[in-house]
# Entry
Amino acid sequence: MNKRSLDIERQLRAWAEDVGNSIPVFRTPESVGLGSPPPPHTQRRRALVAALVTISVSAVASLWYARAAPSSRVAAGLPASGVGNVTVVHESVAYRQEAQLTCADAPLSRSGAFNSMTIDTWGDAAGELWRNRVTYPDGTYRDLLVIGEPSRPREVLSSGEAKGDVLGCVVDGNGILVAEPGQGSLYSLNLGRSARSNGGAPLSPGYAELGMRVPGSFADSEGRQAELWRQRVTGFAEFDGGRHPLVQTTEWFVESGTGRVLETRYVNQVQSLGLAQWTATLIESETSSVPKAVFDRSGYEPVR
Amino acid sequence: MIDTVQITFEGFVAAVEPGLRRALAGHLPSESVPDALAEAFAYSWEHWSRVRQLENPGGYLFRVAQSRSRTRKSGFLPDPDPQRLPHVEPRLGKAMRALPSQQRSAIWLVHGCGWTYAETAEALDISRSAVGTHVGRGMSRLRSYLGVDLS
# Structure
């Protein structure tokens, strides 16, 4: 037999990682609707996941905050120096969330938590470097650093504390309708969504894959003319020994011609719990040169 | 506090998902894996109070995902892509598929996915010692098939 050295264990590891990486990362809300339409059984389950594990964001009082000189606000918290600069796309989004709950018991709440925040994203697509900064109304922030394609990152690191509120009801089981997004994966309205599967399907589906265009003329909360795309998911949430109908509606306000998402709204309504919703509004989008230190990982801890 | 439960669950998904995805990718057709993951995490959410206390949640959810997956096809294992993995022996796929299913699964989970014997035992619903036996015998077969020098 022709003998030769071969580290089979290492090859198995590389092979398994490659096979796993060829499959889209499961994301609690974004995975809803991935692929071909699922049968009712699966659709209900996906709706349940999306209903109860919504990873979103929020903010009520801080459109004002987001508009207050975003460049200086952002620059103030970023590394001031680095070895050279890198060209990035920067997006700034104002996020707010609110709820009208009809809880039988106490509503969920986190003392001192925020329902508004600003989410800045810097993306170096060529270098496969991405960063979120979530800034709260008190000026504090947390960061998420994503290395690789956002839909299948090689590394995700974070720093800082999530201070967003959780909206929903205390029930036997889970009654969370909306919560701060982007704690485990990159959050952006438009960045990091270009990756495709081998079959050509987007790994991070957006309005064109998930929604249907609503005929007519529309404007977002900023008064910007836009196309309206909508996805409506129905299903049931199970808690307190019963099945409770739910309706989840996502709307995208899309700039005609460019296809850029200007605003996204999400409403999660569950019978006997009430309604919670969030709105994410694009405030700023630009290409700029920033210090490479923007993607410096010092001070970060691995998320996965 | 329920409010911390959501954060914990999100962290749970972030921690478990990559390993579970790799594990399922070696056992189900790739197009079935997203649905299987959705089933597993929906189950986790529905039974969160119990799942959060499991010693080996990955192994348990592997079984949940497989049993609830719509596909009944198992043992699916694509060949290593020579473009992306030029250092991987091309015959490794064929050699793995030639193994008995329990040996193949145990090797995939232990050496491919880096799971512990305990996690693998939970996933395959066998004892830890049986995992060791399957891995040992399977690796011997692989080395023999591939002509690997053990010295």
